[in-house]
């Protein structure tokens, strides 16, 4: 830039034809340098590199925010809806019906198998209660008097449904035979079945006649 100014000044001096011209040209002529529109050379590359860096940072931030929003929607909206939707209700309903039949159906010839099957539908304190009840009450009576019971579900409906618990109202018929009553007795009843989510399975945690 300085060389250009000196060159322009020299040309002005060389073109002087008279003293008046010399006096007029006594003051050096300079040309204001016009800054370039874009920085050249290394500076331009530095600025371009910085621009690309910030573009990448903005994109990464946007992706992180989008991922966070998606995760929040899944945890706070989609997942609870899924846990209390129609599929979850059907699963709890079937678990209550299957568990009720398993609890109230047994035969003296297959007591151990029947009790073992029933236990797979139970959890918590109710499982402990069932173990004690079958050992102390049901097994001696069923063995001595050949008690056999068969339960059949008449109807059932979900009364409460939460992500980790549910209550199902079950209506059932039960037929019982024994050596004292070979013709059998027939009864109808309603039971409020409490369920707890254990892993992916609904298990019976309470069983209360209504």
Automatic annotation (TrEMBL):
Residue spans crossing the bilayer: 53-75
Keywords carried by this UniProt record: Membrane, Transmembrane, Transmembrane helix
Location(s) in or outside the cell: Membrane
Any one annotated GO CC term: membrane
Superkingdom per UniProt: Bacteria
Residues covered by region (Disordered): 1-40
Entry-linked PANTHER family: OUTER MEMBRANE PROTEIN RV1973
Protein name (Swiss-Prot/TrEMBL): Twin-arginine translocation pathway signal
């Amino acid at each position: 830039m300085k060389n250009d100014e000196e060159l322009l000044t020299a040309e002005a001096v060389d073109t002087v034809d008279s003293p008046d011209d010399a006096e007029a040209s006594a003051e050096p002529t300079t040309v204001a340098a016009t800054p370039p529109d874009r920085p050249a050379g290394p500076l331009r590359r530095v600025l371009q590199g910085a621009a690309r860096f910030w573009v990448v940072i903005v994109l990464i931030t946007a992706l992180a925010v989008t991922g966070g929003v998606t995760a929040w929607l899944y945890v706070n909206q989609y997942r609870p809806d899924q846990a209390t939707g129609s599929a979850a209700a059907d699963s709890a309903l079937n678990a209550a019906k299957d568990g009720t039949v398993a609890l109230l159906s047994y035969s003296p010839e297959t007591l151990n198998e029947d009790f073992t099957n029933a236990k797979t539908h139970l959890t918590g304190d109710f499982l402990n209660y069932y173990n004690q009840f079958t050992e102390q009450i049901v097994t001696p009576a069923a063995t001595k008097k050949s008690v056999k019971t068969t339960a059949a579900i008449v109807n059932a409906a979900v009364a409460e449904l939460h992500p980790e618990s549910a209550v199902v109202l079950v209506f059932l018929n039960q037929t019982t035979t024994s050596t004292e009553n070979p013709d059998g007795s027939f009864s109808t009843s309603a039971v409020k079945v409490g369920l707890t989510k254990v892993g992916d399975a609904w298990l019976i945690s309470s069983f209360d006649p209504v």
